[in-house]
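Ticket closed. Logging final result for Alkylation response protein AidB-like acyl-CoA dehydrogenase.
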Amino acid sequence: MDLSYSSDERDLIDLARQVFATFDQDILAESPPREVVPRADRFMGEVAGTGLLGIGLDEEVGGSGGTLVDLGIVFREAGRAVVPTAIRSTIGAALHIDQLGTTPQREEWLGRLTTGEVTAALAIAEPGVDRRIDLITTTASASADGWVLGGTKTLVENISTAGVFVVAALVAGEGAPTVKYFVVPAEAPGLSIETTTVIGEEDHGRLTLADVPVPASGLLGEDPRRDSRAAAARAMLVFDALRAQEMVGIAEQIVERTAEYVTTRHQFGRPIGTFQAVQHRVADMLIATRAAGHLANRAVWTLSEGLDAERDVAASVVLAAKAAEIATLSAHQVHAGMGYAKESKLYLWSQRAKSLVLQTSGRRHQLQRVAESLFDAA
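Final structure:
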């Protein structure tokens, strides 16, 4: 297994870094929340024009080609630049449509998502059950024209501007209910959104579906009796691996910013980076980040090869979350008072890291997945 980057992958790193570097972080640091979303949307269109939103998706259905390793690179660079979360949410929805949809459905939606014509978001988590698909209560009932959806979804990203939502719901039938996924337009009758205040003032909220009509073509897949849990679990596994890459990117950027700071900040007539206590802090940050980066690369590689990746993905999420935690806390400590000043912008990475940790079902759940895979293997 060779996890070093090829020349093509290094070119992709350069492209993504160059594109994401054009995002003005002052939008997040200085603009009122109501101005952040439209300005971020304009940047989303610029990113779509480079083809980065279609990385990892087949060209035949509107993607840009490439592998999951390539998509992992895009997410890591997105973490370094704390780009708008609409990029992450749209790619996450596209992955589910790609995994669950028929060829006509993939052709209809993926091209529109990857070109920035429309943004999207996943609507899976529910009050009190997080992303536990086996515990969701949102229902989809057959109607003369298709389906009627009812239920409530929480922690929906990009909720204010998403053009479509990919919604998980239970379909009743003979035997046990099956879990299916539906593409629901944001303007559908009976659909309402409520934005919620979350860390970092990101665009999250609650999605309420009150007898929302969905056409038959909105059901992803062909057979409503065929349960989608396994295929959806694969899509979510990929998404978790990508979010681990994003957390690694956050940690990498913080390490670099801190290393630069300790060489330019002087105390007692010398750079603070010459003091051993500071060196220990920065070394711990770098070690944790490098370790998390290697495991995150292994996780996306394992997925791209079609191998059993559940243990690698869960472990990569845990290690990436830990690296982001060590990096952010240590950076604030080393920067001292300046680290808590808005001018340093350090808090942008800290907030994004914390938000991502909360969205990946928590460290305890991921560790449980690792333990279960180890016991199963034994």
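The first helix runs from residue 7 to 20. No further action required.
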